[in-house]
Specification:
Number of strands: 19
Number of helices: 7
Strand content: 15-25%
Order of helices and strands: HHHHEEEEEEEEEEEEEHEEEEHHEE
Distance between the termini: 125 Å
Largest sheet: 8 strands, mixed
Radius of gyration: 51 Å
């Protein structure tokens, strides 16, 4: 029993001690660092700081006031009129600051001018519309004229079909452009004239380009290419003062250029040979070529011109002679029709035209096949559109350009 009493006394003492501690903590130990209550007041904050002189200083009255915000006075903004001053701008100074264009200016009219206007009208955004078939004019087939079917695609023939000029825009200025007449002869003494009307400006070509303006005139077979003087039975005399046949060039006569009139003469009445000679502005330059009649085999030779950036005009006899012609020669237009011979006939309609498109991998033999097919069908006069065809029209120092084969 005594053990139980002692336990009860101890329990009572512990309860009293706990009550005393609780009474002591009420208001006095709230800021103790060991306090684990849920109340957090300004006293706890003050007692934890030593600036207030101790841990038991009582409650501190604190309040929070919102800072005063000054409202900006709203003022009505007034707009004042501003005086605008007009200043004169010197347009000539602006034009001088603009770099000069490589195109021909508008006032300097000519073949290059019209070509430039056409190039501006049809930019990259749109392509020119093909001419309507109704616009094709009737032409007297008995007249000797430039054969539109027997000339390069980049040689532009005039409506009268007696004059023309090559394209000169951009890279076309590097190319030669040729054309033949519709009739040829294989007998008699025949002539025609060619006048160099204009050397078309090509300022976009580099200064290192040799002879940017050259014309070559002469005779060739209908089966020859338009590159006059660069294969057998093709005879030409150029403005550089050289004659050429089968790509062999020799000095002959003298140079000629813009506004000169060149007479081309052919004489079948000299025995077994055929003689070809030239005149410049009515002055005879001597015999340039002699060919065997047996080698020609009765095939006719046609008037032929090859131009590089020059506008030319023919006189086959439709006009009065421009210069004196040696006695005994007749303009080809005045030769009787039954003694003239036509070249390859053009298709009568577009339905008779033929287009072949080559499809294949690089180096598969497309160009080789196309060249062979064109050679086996010479009467069809195929125009092969490709890199090789363009390179054939470009020459360096009167020699054919040799390109490596990969």
């Amino acid at each position: 029993m005594e053990g139980h009493l002692l336990l009860e006394d101890e329990e009572e003492e512990e309860e009293e001690e706990l009550q005393a501690r609780a009474a002591d903590d009420d208001g006095t130990n709230a800021g103790d660092s060991n306090y684990d209550g849920t109340v957090n007041s300004f006293n706890q904050c003050d007692n934890q700081c030593s600036d207030f002189g101790g841990s038991r200083q009582g409650n501190v009255d604190r309040s929070w006031e919102a800072p005063a915000i000054e409202q900006a006075a709203t003022t009505k903004q007034e707009f004042q009129p501003v005086e605008v001053k007009e200043e004169f701008v010197d347009q000539s100074a602006i034009k001088q600051s603009i770099p000069p264009s490589r195109k021909r200016p508008f006032p300097d009219q000519g073949h290059g001018y019209y070509e430039y206007r056409e190039d501006r009208s049809y930019g990259r955004a749109k392509s020119p519309q093909p001419p309507a078939e109704d616009d094709e004019e009737e032409f007297d087939e008995t007249c000797v004229a430039i054969d539109t079917y027997n000339c390069d695609l980049h040689f532009k023939v005039a409506r009268d079909r007696l004059s023309g000029y090559p394209l000169t825009i951009e890279g076309f200025a590097y190319l030669w452009s040729g054309a033949r007449a519709t009739y040829g002869v294989n007998k008699g003494r025949v002539c025609f004239e060619v006048k160099i009307n204009e050397e078309i400006p090509v300022k976009h070509l580099p200064s290192t380009e040799p002879d940017p303006h050259v014309v070559r005139v002469g005779w060739s077979l209908d089966s020859c290419s338009t590159q006059l003087g660069e294969e057998a039975f093709s005879y030409g005399f150029g403005g550089t003062g050289k004659k050429s046949s089968n790509c062999k060039f020799q000095d002959y006569g003298e140079r000629f250029s813009e506004n000169d009139v060149m007479g081309c003469l052919i004489n079948y009445d000299v025995g077994e040979d055929v003689e070809m000679s030239y005149t410049k502005n009515g002055r005879w330059l001597g015999v340039a070529f002699r060919a065997k009649k047996t080698a020609l085999g009765g095939r006719p030779l046609f008037p032929h011109v090859l131009s590089k950036n020059c506008a030319i005009e023919f006189n086959f006899g439709q006009k009065e002679p421009w210069c004196r012609i040696p006695d005994g020669f007749t303009y080809i237009q005045h030769v009787p029709l039954d003694q003239r011979m036509t070249g390859t006939a053009a298709p009568k309609s577009k339905s008779e035209c033929e287009i072949l498109m080559m499809v294949g991998l690089p180096a598969a033999g497309k160009t080789t096949w196309a060249a062979g097919h064109a050679a086996s069908n010479p009467w069809k006069k195929y125009n092969i559109l490709g890199t090789n065809a363009i390179m054939e029209k470009m020459k360096v120092a009167t020699q054919r350009v040799e390109w490596p084969v990969f």
